[in-house]
Structure formats: C-alpha cells, structure tokens
Amino acid sequence: MLKEISIEKIVNGGEGMGHIDGFPVFVPMSVPGDELEIQLISKKKSYGRGIIKKIIKPGEERIDFPKFTEEDFHGCNFAMLSYEAQLKYKMLLVSDVMKKIGGVSDAYILPIIGSDKEINYRNKVIEPFAYGQNGEIITGMFKRRSHEIFQIDKNMLSSDLSNEVINKVKKILNKNKNISVYNEKFHKGILRHIMTRTNSQNEAMLVLIINAKKIPDEVFALLKEVYEEMDQVKSVYISLNDKRTNVALGNSQKHLFGQRTLQENIKGIDFSISPTSFFQINLEQTKKLYEVGISYFNNIQDKCIVDAFAGIGTIGMILSKEAKQVYSMEIVEKTVADGLRTAKRNNITNVEFICGDVNRKIQELMKDEKTIDAVIFDPPRKGIEEETLRTLSSHKIEELVYISCNPSTFARDSKILIEEGYVLEKIQPLDLFPQTSHIELVGKFTLNKSEVTE
Ligand SMILES: C[S@@+](CC[C@H](N)C(=O)[O-])C[C@H]1O[C@@H](n2cnc3c(N)ncnc32)[C@H](O)[C@@H]1O
After folding, report:
1. Region 1-12 average pLDDT
2. Hey, which of 264, 309, 402 would you mutate to test ligand 1's pocket, going by the most ligand atoms within 8 Å of its Cβ?
3. pLDDT score for 143
4. CA-CA distance, 256 to 254, in Å (whole number)?
5. Ligand 1 atom nearest 312 alpha carbon
C-alpha cells in the first residue's frame, strides 16, 4: 500500500522520520523536508517503517534526487545528503543521545571535525562473490535485508587501489571460468569473499576467502597471476572458511606470496597489519582522532597509562614516546602478535602487551597494585562493562579518555562514570565514516578533586 509522508527529522541510526495519521514512520535514505510516496513494509504497535517509492518533492539538503535507494549510493545510508548536512545531522544525533541517555547538555560537545576525503577513504574492504545476470562472476554488496548481491564496479568508499585489485581478480576469473562461486543455500562452490587492505604507500594485501579445506590448484594459479601482474599487491593470503556462517574470514589464514603484513606509518611508527588485525579504516581521520585523544591527557610524561581495547597498540605506542609505562590490552591473540612485532621493529621497550579481556585484565593490574595514572578506552560498539567503569574511581585513576564509535553506549557509560565521581569535561565528535551515519567521538573525564583527596 502506497502512502504519502513528509520527513521531519533524522533519528539515531540515520533514518528519516515523519508521521502518517499521527503514527511515526521511519524511512531509510530520507531527508528532512522530503515529501515522499512510500511503501509501508512493517507496522509495529508504536511505529512503522517504509521504503521510498517516489520523491514528490526533495528536501533542500538532498543531492542526486533521482537516486534514492541504498543501491544507488553503494550501500551508504547518508550519501543522499550534502556533506555539510551529513555533519550537521551527526552533531544533532550526538547531542540527542547525550541528552536522552547520558543526561549531558550540548555545552560539552565541540563542533564535529569533518573529513577532507569524502569518498575513497576506506583502507579495508570485504565484498561477497555472486553470479551476475549473464552468469558472469561479480562482487558487490547485499541488497537491503536480502541475500541478493548488487554489483559495484568502483565502490565509492574504497581506495582506488582496492577497486583495481578486485576488478583484476574478477577479470581473470571471468576469463578462465574455472572457479565456482559459493552458494550459501546448498553450501557448495568455492569463492565466498574477497578482502583487500591498502596503505598510504599505495600497496595492497589481498585475501581470498574460499569454501574449501585445502587450496585448489586453480585458486593458487589465480592468486599467483594477480601477484605477478600487479606490483602494488605486496601480500597475498587465502582464508579457508568451510563453515555455514555469515562471518567472512575463516579461522585459518594461509600466507601465499609476498610480505606477511602490510605496513602503515602513524606519527613516525611503522605498524604491521595482518589480515585479521583491527586497524582503523580511514587513515587521515584516524590520525586526527589519535591527536585529539592524546591531547586530552593533561600530562603524559612519567605516567603509567593503560591503552584498553588496544588493537595492534597504535595509541599506546604513540603514548610510549613520552609515558613512563604503557599497558596495551587486547583480546585477539594475532592482533597482539602484530603489536609485539611493531614494538620490536621500532625499538619500543616500555609497552607491556596484555592479551585478554580488558574487563578482567584491568582488575588484575589494580589487584597487583600497579600504578595506573590514566586510561584510554577504545571499545567496540557495545561499550564497556558496568563493573569495570564502577571500579576506576575507587582506584583513584585521575584521567580517562574514552574513544567511541557508538554515541549511545558512550552516553550510557558516561552516565555511570559521572555517578562514580568523574567530571565529563568535553566531547569531540569526528567524522571517520563520510557518507554513512556512523559517528566517532572522544570524551575526556577527570576524577572530581574531592574524590581524589577523600
Ligand atoms: C574499536 S577497536 C580499537 C583498536 C585501537 N584502539 C585502534 O585505534 O586501532 C577495539 C578493539 O578491542 C578489541 N576488543 C574487543 N573486545 C575486547 C575485550 N573485551 N577486551 C580486550 N579487547 C577487546 C577488538 O579486538 C579491537 O581490536
């Protein structure tokens, strides 16, 4: 059934919202001021959801108005907005959740730091394989709430080199026609996903994820051809994944050609990155993010600092240039191994790498009565366990810097820290993910003086 709606605002999650007969309806890819014809696709007790069928009149901030689906915009749910408007709505979304969930006013929120690069900023890409309409092998993205894949020749977010590598692989596959595409329904076929990592030196790592227990000869030959023909491809892996799963990478990564890791330099430190390691996807914005986070410490010299949820230890190793001691905590073993390799190559000796769950390991440090002057947290989207947050003030940890990729959990955790005696001094939003509704931010907390002298 088609209905008309005027979009009033953008809500958390990035969808537009309007009312039909007084009933709120959420519409992906819609913009405030849009007058739309939509199809209702679900109706719950207190709200509904609809998809755009026709734009009757576009909102002022909408660009490319004949385009309106996620497929039109390569899966990017904010790409129908001008970049200026994207930043404006990100600020509003932060302010909204901080008020509603954290009880924190706008006065603490600094203007968002935008990205110089609005497209082609991603240094890691994973695309699934499929067959196109003419039986050719394609890669792309899943359509909204579907297992159908649409082809993208030049993904707008990926680095140019990444697009080149993926297109080269597809070209050889379609020339040789000797490797099948995985079919998840029947759990048959070989090619599952292609992953690329690229760096600022225009070098690439290629990882082919296949449904097999060992490497078929024709897959080995394909990757050898890509490695030999593309100078920029410095590292090639196969990931064996024969499980019925939505997780792309398998448990076993086989190194085939070139280097084992890709290198990236931040602040004069050469970081080694493996296929499975976490590394921020937008390098230039990440440098700004780290600069902001590190500048939030009043003083680094002679301090003992925990880098919690450390990944390969990027932030901790930058801090180690001035700090007395850094504890770098990360749960993924291979990622910790990358950190150790990086520290060794860069002669860094004052970072202790601790592999395990931050929520346990930070307690252990406290129990061992190790000095902790400050902590920098950078958790995944689910944020930090309440128990961890509640023990920090009793150990008189004076400074906390909290990097977050999810304003809702950041707001929830801020509320707990404030209850525990911390003062939230400022929040700096940054745009690490242009064209999408994702938001990154950094918060600075200091322990209330009365709690320190108690
Ligand atoms: C958002 S990333 C941040 C990484 C790093 N700070 C950076 O900028 O590259 C979060 C990291 O926390 C790790 N992680 C997730 N849960 C964890 C836990 N409970 N304890 C320790 N590390 C965890 C993930 O493997 C990932 O490397």
Report:
1. 94
2. 309
3. 80
4. 6
5. 9
Proportion of the chain above pLDDT 70, given as a percent? 99
User: Which domains does the chain possess?
Assistant: 2-68 (2.40.50.140), 92-115+280-453 (3.40.50.150), 124-265 (2.40.50.1070)
- Centre of ligand 1 from the C-alpha of residue 307, in Å: 10
Tokens of 87: 């930043």
CA atoms within 13 A on the CB side of 264: 27
Q: Which long-range contacts (CB under 8 A, 24 or more apart) does 96-102 make?
A: 96/11, 96/12, 97/12, 97/407, 97/408, 97/411, 98/407, 98/411, 98/414, 98/427, 100/411, 101/408, 101/411, 101/412, 101/415, 102/410, 102/411, 102/412, 102/414, 102/415, 102/418
Cα–Cα distance for residue pair 373/150, rounded to 1 Å: 50
- Give residue 148's pLDDT: 82
Say if CB 200 and CB 265 are below 8 A apart.
yes
Residues for the chain: how many in total? 454
Cα-to-centroid distance, 376 and ligand 1 (Å): 12
Give residue for tokens 């080995």. Answer: 220
Centre of ligand 1 from the C-alpha of residue 72, in Å: 33
Q: Measured in whole angstroms, how far is the alpha carbon of residue 207 from the centre of its chain?
A: 19
Nearest CA to ligand 1 atom 7: 311
Residues taking part in catalysis: 405
Tens of pLDDT, residues 242-275: 999 988 998 889 999 999 999 999 999 999 999 9
**Joined tokens for residue 140:** 């792309």
C-alpha distances out from residue 223 to 29, 241, 262, 321, 393, Å: 38, 17, 17, 40, 53
User: Considering only CA atoms, which of 231, 254, 111 is closest in space to residue 168?
Assistant: 231
* Ligand 1 pocket: which of 271, 278, 442 to mutate (most atoms within 8 A of CB): 278
Mean pLDDT (the chain) is: 94
The sheet with strand 440-447 has its strands ordered as 351-355, 325-330, 304-308, 374-377, 399-404, 440-447, 422-430
The residue assigned the tokens 């307690």 is 363
In whole angstroms, how far apart are CA 311 and each of 234, 280, 307? Answer: 22, 9, 9
Instruction: Report how far ligand 1's centroid is from the alpha carbon of 192 (Å).
Output: 26
pTM of the full predicted structure? 0.93
Q: Which two tokens stand for residue 301?
A: 């010299």
Residue nearest to atom 27 of ligand 1 (CA): 311
